[in-house]
Amino acid sequence: MRKVVLCEGNNKMAICMEDCVFMKEIKTNVMRILDKEKVEYTHHEYPHGKDAVDGVTVATLMNQNPDYVFKTLVTKGMGRDYYVFVVPVDHELDLKKCAKSVGEKSVEMIPVKDITKVTGYVRGGCSPLGMKKQFKTTFHITAESIPKIIVSAGKIGYQIDLKPEDLIRLTNGQCADIIKD
């Protein structure tokens, strides 16, 4: 009987069968999009279980400045359109400011149970890039003044960092003040 062991780490997956080891680099759809667009990025991994952890913990696990690590949040407007907001992990969305930034009367967070249906991603692995459909995306204004932005690579445990201007361009995004004071 053959013994098969799967091990993940350093963006590679090792498949060990008896005395043979096969290495396969793990690429998420977000990484494939960036490769296709020839955008430079660095991938990061952090230890995780199957459940999501908060963004500040992710920044700590990766030894990164939380000002550079952003979370992706999805809302729904009164007109039933979806909107994506990308903010630093240690801040909270101001839904009134968000609504104003996209020309809606109001917006509300979508239920957690709808995240996969709407975006194609799971909670904790939601990236502003590569969703099922491209929604209007707004980044907090601090994204314009930082040297790098770190967001989910589309899978829990994987993050990418790249130039903010590249990510804003690829998402056809805009910047606005969208966090609580």
Features:
YbaK protein; alpha+beta
The total of beta strands comes to 11
CATH topology (fold) name: YbaK protein
* Helical coverage, percent range: 10-25%
Q: Architecture in CATH?
A: Alpha-Beta Complex
Please tell me the total number of domains.
1
Q: How would you name the CATH homologous superfamily?
A: YbaK/aminoacyl-tRNA synthetase-associated domain
Shape: globular
Percent strand equals 25-35%
Main sheet attributes: strand count, strand direction, barrel closure: 5 strands, mixed
CATH class category name: Alpha Beta
By helix and strand content, what is the structural category? alpha+beta
Overall mean pLDDT score? 89
User: Which stretches of 5+ consecutive residues score pLDDT under 50?
Assistant: none
Number of helices: 5
Radius of gyration: 17 Å
SSE run: EEEHEHEEHEHEEEHE
Strand arrangement, major sheet: 7-5-6-8-11
Separation of the first and last Cα atoms: 61 Å
* Oligomerization state: single chain
Describe it for me?
InterPro entries: Prolyl-tRNA_editing_YbaK/EbsC, YbaK/aa-tRNA-synt-asso_dom_sf, YbaK/aa-tRNA-synth-assoc-dom. Keywords: Lyase, Protein biosynthesis. This protein is globular. It has a five-stranded mixed sheet. A three-stranded antiparallel sheet has the order 1-2-3, with no helix packed on it. The longest helix is centred in the first third of the chain and has 8 residues, at 29-36. It has helices spanning 29-36, 55-61, 95-102, 115-119, 164-170; strands at residues 4-9, 12-17, 20-25, 42-45, 70-77, 82-88, 107-109, 136-140, 149-155, 158-162, 174-176. With 181 residues, the chain is of the alpha+beta class. It has a single domain (28-176), classed as YbaK/aminoacyl-tRNA synthetase-associated domain (YbaK protein). The model has no long low-confidence stretch (mean pLDDT 89).
